[in-house]
Amino acid sequence: MIKAIAVDDEPLALEVIRSHAARVPFLQVDAYFTNAFEAIDYMAKHTADLLFLDIKMPDISGLELAEGLQHKPLIIFTTAYAEHAVTSYELNAIDYLLKPFSYPRFLKACHKAHEQLLLRQGGKLPVADSIFIKSGYEQIKIAFADLLYLEGGGNYMSFIMTDGRSILSRLTMADALTLLPAEIFARVHRSYIVNKTKIDRVERHQLHIAGQMVPIGSAFDSGAILK
């Protein structure tokens, strides 16, 4: 579990982080601060693995705060100003989130932090076995073992499950590819992503999953899908 804190002078920005963090199973945000100096005092007394840090704040910037920390956690900078990107990486930030950022982009940054912490500890990187997606007003856990494939249309993806359910979520194809581990899932068409462990048979222009046929796009190599 990653223990984190978040610092941003805008309460609404912290609420976005709080909402996204609640959907990340390996992340625990212990404290949120709109005042940078209160955050500094907190970090002097408590340890954290990860710091979500806004750059442009009154009195002291996130860059100055990061430079002044004696014991530096992993840092993910958040800001509405793209010109700060180069400076943030000079401070060895593991990622840089440009506001407004989506949940998939936030999750990708959290995965980077998770990988860095595991590597520091000499551990192996586990492959996730589930994700949470938003469907309507609900947050639904999708176990990869129960997911056959995804079908995209516009800004929505349908998650086709082994029990026959089709769960609709507002995600683009790029968002879905960010959320899903490449070890398990493969894009086979401009509109389809499949669970490689569920494939029964692969043909030149289509594949079979649980009695259903999924097309293979002309731009995709059918021979490489199972690799």
From TrEMBL:
GO molecular-function terms, A-Z: DNA binding; phosphorelay response regulator activity
Tagged with keyword Phosphoprotein: yes
InterPro entries, per the entry: CheY-like_superfamily, LytR-like, LytTR_DNA-bd_dom, Sig_transdc_resp-reg_receiver
Sequence ranges assigned to domain HTH LytTR-type in this UniProt record: 131-204
Keyword annotations of the record: Phosphoprotein
Domain Response regulatory: 3-114
Post-translational modification 4-aspartylphosphate, affected residues: 54
Protein name (Swiss-Prot/TrEMBL): Response regulator transcription factor
